[in-house]
Every structure is written in structure tokens, then in C-alpha cells.
Write a sequence for this structure.
């Protein structure tokens, strides 16, 4: 495995404050950036949601939106949000709750959607991420989920953070799941634990025989890559390469090109340090571990990720678009083969939880928190 080049691509004028009063740098407010050039888009409010987390467009132009407390809504073309019933109970709290929603590649013929959510354990205070699929039945007043089938589960552990559970279907029609390490550190290096891993499954939850550790059996057979921390964005580019971003500790948010069977180093190395100030060895001390293509310190607190393929924003063609929570921005990534760097940062004034590309090439953003806006970005 080659050693990758580390790059710190921050826009200094828009760097966020490393506020010492916050428990987590990813929750820190952005610093006052002062005068900045105007964003190249108009942001129009379309609807509001309560703690939205993810969204995906349906073939008819309607939009599915998850809310962390366990609500799935469908937004009609006219802008009215209606509730989808049949969502399983979620373990709400901290970073836990209802997570991602995506469509099966053959959704038009089978009506299947895939959802992720935090699920309570049998022991008090424990929970784990769960991925399920169900049939989506739409009606004039909303709709319902039926035939819910759980496909994958994290172990139930204490705490309410670092679930990950972002979902994507790849060009191979395999189901890809980001499984964060639940702030348990060492399991990220253990192939017998699903924590701190990128998981690859068939669409029915079975294990592909070409996974890198398939012959080891058990949990290891499901693993594509390991040594990850808190993975909150996943996207394939036009060359079918998989890119994932993850939150670092105190500093060191990462954007990684995911390679088969590779170890990305957490918690052995990082570009950041522990929240109590304890240093972590840097990636360049371990050339045997896979280093990030881009990293940020101060952090941007990445959430949501899409690689733009539309024509409405020609200058964004092939770019990655990342939602920034602490940075309160939309961050554009420029790719050059197997390398990446931040190209621009567009201040939004609010924490951005999710990014999606609309059917006609407009870009859609979900703000974080209560009474959060769904914004449609159109070029100026």
C-alpha cells in the first residue's frame, strides 16, 4: 500500500474557533469570518423539520427526510411534509436516533428503501446502530413502511455517540455501511468487531464472497476497511472510487479514499489529539497505515456528502460537497485522481447536517437542530 500525501486545505479567513469552553471541537461555533465574497448561489427555504438527519429523492421528485426522534417524512413537490408510518422505535439521545435513508437501485420496480437507526439494547444505557430495509407504500396523505427486515446490527454498547450508519449503494449494487467506533477506540483495529469499519454487504444483508476478509468468517467477512473513527459521509465518484469523511478527535477531521482491506489507523494515529490534550501520533509516524487525502485542523465537523454530477453548477462538476456543522458552511472538495483538497468554503450561518443533489442538478441542504430549514441552492 502506498503512503498517501497529507494535505491541510483550510481557508484561513473562515477557520472556526477552537473554543476551549466546548466539550467537543466539532460542536464549537464558527469564528467571525468578517467580510467574504458572496456565495455563487441563492438559498431558498422550502420546508422546516425537527432535527433532520438525512434525505433522499424519489424518482417522482418527492423527497424523503428522516428526523432523529424516529420520524420519516415525505415532502411533496408542492412543499408539504407528510408522515410515513411503520418506522421502528429508535434510541434517541446524543448522536443517536433515526439516521440515513436510501433507495434500492431497483426502487422503481421493488419499492425498497434502506434505513439506519440507533436501537436500544437489553441492558440499560446501551444501544447500537441497526440497518433495515422495508417496502415503501406511498399514499396521498403520506404512506407507510411494510415488511421491515433487519439486515445488520452493531453490538449494543454504552454511550450515545459515534454510530456512523451512513448508507450507500455502490456501482456494484452492494450495500455499503459506515460503522463508527462508538468512542470505544480499540475495537476499530479488531477485525472481529464491526466498530470503526466500512461494511460491505449484498442488498439482502448476506456477505459478498469477494470481501477482503471473507475467508476469516464471522464479522471479519463483512469488513471492507478498518481503523476508522466517526464516519458521517460516503459517496462514489464518477470513476467508481469510494470516498468517506470522518470526524477526528480534537482536530484532524479526515477525507479518505477507501481501499480494499486497508487500515486507516484510528486510534493508533490521527492528525488531531484527544480532547483532554493527550497527543496522538501523527500519520507520518506510521507509513504502514493509510493516511487521509485531506484533513482539517481546526475541524469543519463534516456531515453529509455528495459528489456533484449535475450541470446547474458547472464549476462544481465532479466536486465533493460536504456539510459543515461547527464550521457552519458548505465545503467544496476538488479531486485530482486519487488526491483531494478543499477548494472553497461557503458560509451558511447555520450548522449543515445533510447535502443532496436534486433531480435537476440543484443542491439541497438540511440544517441541523430543531426547526431546521430545508434549503434549495440555485445558481445566481
Amino acid at each position: 500500500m502506498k503512503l498517501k500525501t497529507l494535505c491541510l486545505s483550510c481557508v484561513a479567513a473562515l477557520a472556526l474557533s477552537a473554543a476551549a469552553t466546548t466539550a467537543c471541537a466539532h460542536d464549537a461555533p464558527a469564528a467571525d469570518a468578517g467580510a467574504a465574497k458572496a456565495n455563487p448561489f441563492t438559498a431558498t427555504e422550502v420546508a422546516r423539520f425537527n432535527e433532520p438527519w438525512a434525505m433522499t429523492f424519489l424518482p417522482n421528485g418527492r423527497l424523503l427526510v428522516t428526523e432523529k426522534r424516529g420520524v420519516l417524512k415525505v415532502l411533496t413537490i408542492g412543499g408539504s411534509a407528510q408522515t410515513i408510518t411503520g418506522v421502528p422505535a429508535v434510541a434517541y439521545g446524543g448522536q443517536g436516533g433515526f439516521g440515513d435513508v436510501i433507495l434500492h437501485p431497483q426502487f422503481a420496480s421493488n419499492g425498497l428503501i434502506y434505513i439506519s437507526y440507533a436501537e436500544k439494547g437489553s441492558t440499560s444505557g446501551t444501544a447500537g446502530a441497526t440497518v433495515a430495509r422495508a417496502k415503501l407504500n406511498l399514499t396521498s396523505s403520506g404512506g407507510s413502511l411494510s415488511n421491515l427486515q433487519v439486515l445488520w446490527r452493531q453490538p449494543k454498547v454504552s454511550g450515545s455517540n459515534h454510530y456512523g450508519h451512513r448508507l450507500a449503494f455502490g456501482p456494484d449494487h452492494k450495500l455499503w455501511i459506515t460503522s463508527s467506533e462508538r468512542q470505544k477506540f480499540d475495537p476499530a483495529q479488531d477485525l472481529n468487531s464491526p466498530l470503526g469499519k466500512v461494511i460491505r454487504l449484498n442488498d439482502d444483508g448476506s456477505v459478498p464472497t469477494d470481501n477482503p476478509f471473507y475467508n476469516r468468517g464471522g464479522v471479519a467477512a463483512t469488513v471492507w476497511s478498518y481503523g476508522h473513527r466517526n464516519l458521517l459521509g460516503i459517496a462514489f465518484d464518477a470513476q467508481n472510487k469510494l470516498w468517506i469523511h470522518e470526524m477526528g478527535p480534537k482536530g484532524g477531521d479526515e477525507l479518505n479514499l477507501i481501499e480494499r482491506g486497508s487500515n486507516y489507523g484510528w486510534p493508533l494515529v490521527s492528525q488531531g489529539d484527544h480532547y483532554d490534550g493527550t497527543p496522538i501520533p501523527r500519520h507520518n509516524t506510521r507509513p504502514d497505515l493509510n493516511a487521509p487525502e485531506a484533513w482539517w485542523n481546526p475541524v469543519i465537523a463534516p456531515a453529509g456528502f455528495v459528489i456533484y454530477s449535475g450541470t446547474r453548477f458547472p464549476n462544481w462538476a465532479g466536486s465533493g460537497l460536504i456539510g459543515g456543522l461547527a464550521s457552519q458552511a458548505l465545503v467544496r472538495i476538488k479531486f485530482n485522481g486519487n488526491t483531494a483538497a478543499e477548494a472553497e468554503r461557503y458560509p451558511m450561518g447555520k450548522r449543515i447536517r445533510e447535502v443532496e443533489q436534486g433531480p435537476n442538478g440543484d443542491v439541497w441542504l438540511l440544517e441541523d437542530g430543531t426547526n431546521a430549514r430545508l434549503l434549495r441552492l440555485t445558481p445566481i
